[in-house]
Automatic annotation (TrEMBL):
GO terms for molecular function: metal ion binding. GO terms for biological process: protein insertion into mitochondrial inner membrane; protein transport. Keywords: Chaperone, Disulfide bond, Membrane, Metal-binding, Mitochondrion, Mitochondrion inner membrane, Protein transport, Translocation, Transport, Zinc. It is found in: Mitochondrion inner membrane. Heterohexamer. This is Mitochondrial import inner membrane translocase subunit. Residues 1-25 are annotated as: Disordered. It comes from Allomyces macrogynus (strain ATCC 38327).
Length: 103
């Protein structure tokens, strides 16, 4: 029995998960929430930056040059975001040991 009244690390909680399974489940939920937050940030930044760059005279319709500019701006922004994201993930994977059982 642990100090807080629970049983050993191999026991399960009310959902039938072991502490390690529960930890993995929580970590996956955090990763999912971070991915969603990153996607929302990307969309907001694309909207802000590309609108500022491409829409010089706001009106009810986009002209063809504005449409072209927006498409190219969004493509470039997505490409840059993907490059930075891959580099970041690679760096994190190198720096964080695969087995974090000591946590």
């Amino acid at each position: 029995m642990s100090f807080f009244g629970g049983s050993s690390a191999s026991s399960t909680d009310a959902s039938g998960l072991t502490p390690e399974q529960r930890k993995q489940q929580i970590m996956q939920q955090v990763r999912t929430e971070l991915a969603l937050a990153n996607a929302q940030e990307l969309i907001n930044k694309i909207g802000d930056n590309c609108f500022t760059k491409c829409i010089t005279k706001p009106s009810t319709k986009l002209d063809s040059s504005e449409e072209t500019c927006l498409a190219k701006c969004m493509d470039r922004y997505m490409d840059a975001w993907n490059i930075v994201s891959r580099a970041y993930v690679t760096r994190i994977q190198r720096e964080v040991p695969n087995d974090m059982t000591g946590l």
